[in-house]
Batch of 3 targets.
Target 1
Amino acid sequence: MAIIGAGPAGLLLSQLLDLAGVESVVLERHSRAHVEARVRAGVLEDQFQELLRRAGVAARMDAHGQLHESVAIGRGGHSLRIDLKALTGRTVCIWGQTEVTRDLFAAREARGGAVLDEAEDVALHDIDSERPSVRYRRHGAEARLECDVIAGCDGFHGVSRRSVPEGRLETWELVYPFAWLGVLAETPPVSPELIYCGHERGFALCSMRSASLSRYYVQVTAGTDPTEWPDARFWDELRARLPAGAAARLVTGPSVEKSVAPLRSFVAAPLRHGRLFLAGDAGHIVPPTGAKGLNLAGSDVHYLSGALIGFYRDGDTAGLETYSDRALARVWKAQRFSWWMTRLLHRFDDDPPFERRLKQAEFDYLAGSPAAQAALAENYVGLPY
Ligand code: APR
Ligand code: PHB
């Protein structure tokens, strides 16, 4: 097995395969230090937590992750609490993707797994055949890896999806005219629960990594340069978009990280071409509203690891044949949810007045209807695998 990309999808796949006796080599373009330092989202569905436990990489998450029983939706100064636990019987865990990645790297190292970082110019060959190969250059030396199967876990900008011949993948895409400016600050979070805020000035999100580390976002125009946003400007804008109570409680401080992330919805199908299988961001992207990106990488890896174990153990190809359909069925439902949350909570400058008024009605409906809240909650905690 060759696995392209050492993000959560690639590392988790190699770990689950190893535990079932299937050997793989992971090829990663960046250095391990670079991958481990990337700041990403951090809301884990309970099924993803279970997957990490199965992979033997959940000890720190279980010790230090925070279980959240609710999430707040802010709107025009008010806040609505969605009681995830009461509505679904389930919770989510706040534990950063950065930490998940560190634990996965450590676990691969402890088991002697091959994770080759700084692999340059990775190129996929003969993916239509039963003997595909991967060529790459590492520390100046050319190398070639022959394998049975390639898993493309190299994210949206990776080489795997682009290696599928022209015309063999169908794609759907929506690019939003705004981005999220994110700030990490060593301050206590403004609230014990996450707050997703819709506001006429634009969306804002209050999240966290721990009791002393906060993560905040505000909607900005696509292509914004973070240097246009000194800390003081960021805090003022965030405060202006929060419900009154949260605005009054907000503790500010110097940012320790600041970055702009574009918003995009994207799906490629099928997630397979010959002996190449795509998983995680390599096959689909969701906007971060709803925190589904990492969790979808998890469900893909759940389906794909099971299919590959069947193939290697028993020569059974049934799982590989159905992988794409099973994974995409869940992906599309998460696309729908992420798109819905994004539309509801962001400011769209070209929305006609009728749609703006409809959004107000949508909030009112959500506030007054346990059924509407239950629909949000069951998607937020994650639809079944
Ligand atoms: N060759 C080798 N490695 C590559 C290449 C390439 N040509 N291109 C990209 N990569 C590596 C990236 O450096 C990265 O480490 O593939 C990895 C892909 O990891 P992620 O982008 O984290 O994607 P994935 O593992 O699918 O995880 C999905 O991560 O990006 C977030 O929002 C996303 O939370 C979601 C999760
Ligand atoms: C985050 O903590 O970075 C985060 C949380 C929830 C989201 C997106 C990002 O929906």
Note: The first strand starts at residue 2 and ends at 4.
Target 2
Amino acid sequence: MANQAKAFAAQSSTSLLAPLTIQRREVGIHDVQIAVLFCGVCHSDLHTARGEWGGSAYPVVPGHEVVGKVTKVGGSVARFKVGDTVGVGCMVDSCRTCASCKESLEQYCDTGGTIFTYNSPDKHIAGAMTYGGYSDQIVVNDGFVLHISPKLDLAAAAPLLCAGITTYSPLRNWGITKGHKVGIVGLGGLGHMGVKFAHAFGAHTVMFTTSESKVADGKRLGADEVVISKDAAQMAKHANSFDFILNTVAASHSLDAFTALLKRDGTMCLVGAPEHPHPSPSVMNLIFRRRRIAGSLIGGIKETQEMLDFCALHGIVSDIELIPIQKINEAYERMLKGDVKYRFVIDNSTLAN
Ligand code: NAP
Ligand code: ZN
Ligand code: ZN
């Protein structure tokens, strides 16, 4: 018996997302079947649906900020039971045997074996690609399923699975804590979570935005200061002062205005992954103060669970706008204009409409 699911998919880089019936695998002994309640809308969904990174295989069913209820578990699944509230983020499998996987850094699987939640080869269904959370159900190996505290607002918790972990992980990796001055560039889905985490970790948090209209929100979300990054005079006041800057911007831009703000030995970590490359950064900005530009990809499964537990303890969730799946194409256009406060989340029950 085929295990069919309702989904929304892009059929080409230029087509709108539209309904599609997809096939999920039967629940294997290590699998968890999840009825998807909510799915966040990440800018990566748009990049992939529109083929902006190359390598998109159509149809693309995006969605990697999944929260739902367990409806069935395989015979060898001990950590989850029917009715549990669970999450699925950006990965659904990896090689599990390489050094990175053994350290629970599955996103950096040394064999290239990371299976992403969508647009990765699906080893369970011959010739198929993985399909994400713009769907009414998903089947995932239990090693890649996360526990979500029922204390959290479940719709607002969904973006923690990508926007949350992608900002939490580099802030933790660089040891951000009280006494540090931290910049977050771009007040979108990732950026607003970055501000919340940097503030929660005790850092002096500065939000950089191109949008005058977001200044008050930046402060409300936890920023100590908000800087309009297009204003050279405002930027100059912060020269040579940052320990760490997290850059979440989804479009190509000059990095030099930000590297100039780092202290000696300071780091700017890029998590934004724009379609077109950034202009080559100024070497002088880097060598004269031994500054660094780094990158970071989501976070491992162990750290994602740690982040979810931290959020449950501190009451941290995303600021969201809940939408029916039928509004997804409109949501993409609004995301491109920066018109979202600060993450769209799909109410997956609307797939039944
Ligand atoms: P988003 O909600 O669209 O936010 C991006 C923000 O970037 C915007 O709100 C805007 O902030 C700023 N921005 C956009 N265009 C800009 C431009 N031309 N110049 C300057 N600033 C601009 O996107 P998101 O979902 O947070 O994702 C951000 C990026 O991270 C995407 O490229 C996504 O693919 C990537 N990503 C990476 C990872 C990873 O593991 N590394 C994980 C998830 C997502 P202001 O209005 O405040 O300026
Ligand atoms: Zn994402
Ligand atoms: Zn591996």
Note: The pocket of zinc ion (ligand 2) is lined by residues 42, 44, 64, 90, 162 (CB under 6 Å).
Target 3
Amino acid sequence: MALTYRTAGESHGPALTTIIEGVPAGLPLTPEDIDTDLARRQLGYGRGGRQKIETDRVQVTAGIRHGRTLGSPVALMVMNRDFANWSEDRMAIWEPISEVKPITLPRPGHADLAGMQKYETDDLRNILERASARETAARVAAGGVARALLRRYGMEVRSHVVQVGPEQAPGRDDLVLADFDGVDESPVRALDDDASGRMKAAIKAAGQDSDTLGGIFEVWVFDPLPGLGSHVSGDARLDGRIGQAMLGIQAIKGVEIGAGFELGRIRGSAAHDEIFWTEERGYHRRTNRSGGLEGGMTHGAPLVVRAVMKPIATLSRPLASVDVQTKEATSAFKERSDICAVPAAAVIGEAVVAFVLAQALIDKFGGDSIVSLDAAVDRYRAVLAR
Ligand code: EPS
């Protein structure tokens, strides 16, 4: 069975739900496998008041027994503590709308206007509740399970923030796993202390101006098994699957793999990673401009994916908009939000990349049970070692 997940949940509804299908039976899991990443997603300088209300923890309602998966759908729930403040009126589930006025002033850059047209509603809350990036907690929960699966076969997923607004960290293409050890201690999840300070200051300045900031983050996967993904069809290529997963995160507007857009500026002789072989290391490369992917497949070098997040669209000094009921020119509506969420987006990026790789792992090796998956991976490793 293919590995898939689906989330449900509104930002200020009772809870977020994730259902994962196709997890092999017998995978050992602990609450920390999921909760650690849920907590990491809540960090980062520039978050708004909501993160003081929420303390995200997973509740498992199906698919796990005695700390091991059953092979049945795994159902994960993350409660929205803020629902208690919204359940009586704005997010009441059964009671008809009463005094609560519909929101009719769409925010430029949000799903509001197109969603209102598509779903034929005059109340933008019907759109924004699901468009909200609160939903990403449910994806990070799915990522925790995927990460446990990858870790079993030696693959580790990390991330760091490389740009916030105009502030950049020095480019690094030589990172090793240990370089990421302290990254969660940086307030913006940057590896370089000086860049971290500059990024934090930029967020502070944007906040003082009632404005928001986006940025760029990188996800690295260390020691990917070679041969995940496939060249045989466009939708099997890992580049495409990763692109879809990354661009499916709220506010992500661009993705690069390896040297990315830079490859459009250089010659072929400088663009590709020459192949070497030694008894000790087997096949290896001295550069990684391909970002670990050739022909839509991992080749064993670290997978390197970069994504850009646009500045958050909810502005406390709102941009021009139109009242959808009266068509009068006005300002977009204001709601509590973050100033910058790029550090959190990097953790979400880890989760979605982990899930795509875990899918590719299951696609290649199958696995109703972890025992059969282990055996298939061992056999393949033996073949590669020849
Ligand atoms: C979000 C708006 C804010 C963020 C939210 C994403 O929510 P609220 O309006 O309740 O303050 O806090 O992110 C989260 C709740 C979260 O857990 O990441 C938005 O409009 O996308």
Note: The mean pLDDT is 96.
